Amino acid sequence: MFILPNNVTIIEVGPRDGLQNEENQVTTRDKLTFISALQKAGITEIEVTSFVSPKWVPQMADAKEIMQKVEKTGRQFVLAPNAVGADLAIEAGAKSVAVFVGVSNSFNKHNINRTTNESLQLVEPVIAKLKAQNIFVRACISTAFYCPYEGQMDQYAVLELCNRFVKLGVDELSVADTIGRANPLECYSLFKKLRERFPDVLLTAHFHDTRKMAMANIYAALQAGITRFDTSAGGLGGCPFAPGATGNVATEDVVQMFDVMGIQTGIDVKQVCEAVSTIAPHLSRSIETGMYKLYENEQL
Ligand code: HMG
Ligand code: MG
Question: So what's the pLDDT on residue 244?
Fold first, then answer.
């Protein structure tokens, strides 16, 4: 039996990963209400928006206003794919920036119009600039297990890509199962290797829940020594350039699991559900997560 940690950190990605994939154009005011309610629930690290091309992802076109108006409590991450995005993030006062590159060439071509190597060349000077300004840098590693276009990824390629980022001095690696296809054995194997190879970097697991293995994958990653998890309130999420992928594992369900296991998150499940209830009426899809259904039926 492995020793459970006393506490874990949840990084909320709903306002970014969730809303980037939403069909309805959610207003800036409704996004801010959602983020504020998530902060009230005790979530201290949140991906709030993305400085990406509004032609590519119109849902994130209000990034500047979100950054200006969001309450600066805890850590607010913004995504930036390139120098243009990073400069806009810096101008907007971001103190934590997430860059993103996938392992798969085909995914990167679809997502950021560059191969993996071209993407790396693009983000290397960006990371140097951000670090020179004392900005916390998170590197999101997409398609670390499977790619929607190329299938299974080579573990060696994942480790090498992570190594490039660690050498560039990033503070955190968020390693993603972009299309929700990885299984617990694969997650344990990769995260164990990552934990051993990169003992000094924050390591985070980012699971989409397409095949309903995300909870099991979290437990597998926990066994491999991971204590940081990206989750999304309401199970929202998905990348517009990763066909077939559904939402991220739901914050309320993950927090509940940790609660009953006696692992502290500092987050109140009911208040997460209240945050979900602020955004739910503005979405094109219904919220089907276990804890949110209990909340709606007044069983929480
Ligand atoms: P491109 O068309 O190759 O861009 O797109 P470009 O560099 O050739 O520039 C073309 C024009 O766009 C220029 O303007 C630039 O200034 C402008 P023009 O001269 O024509 O007037 N531009 C920008 N404008 C605003 N913000 C910017 C920006 N960059 C250039 N940052 C680009 C390349 C990277 C911009 C585009 O492909 C893009 O925005 N992609 C973003 C895709 C995205 O947001 N995907 C979802 C996030 S990743 C994800 O969800 C995965 C994750 O959750 C982990 C997982 O689950 O795997 C993190
Ligand atoms: Mg994602």
Answer: 85
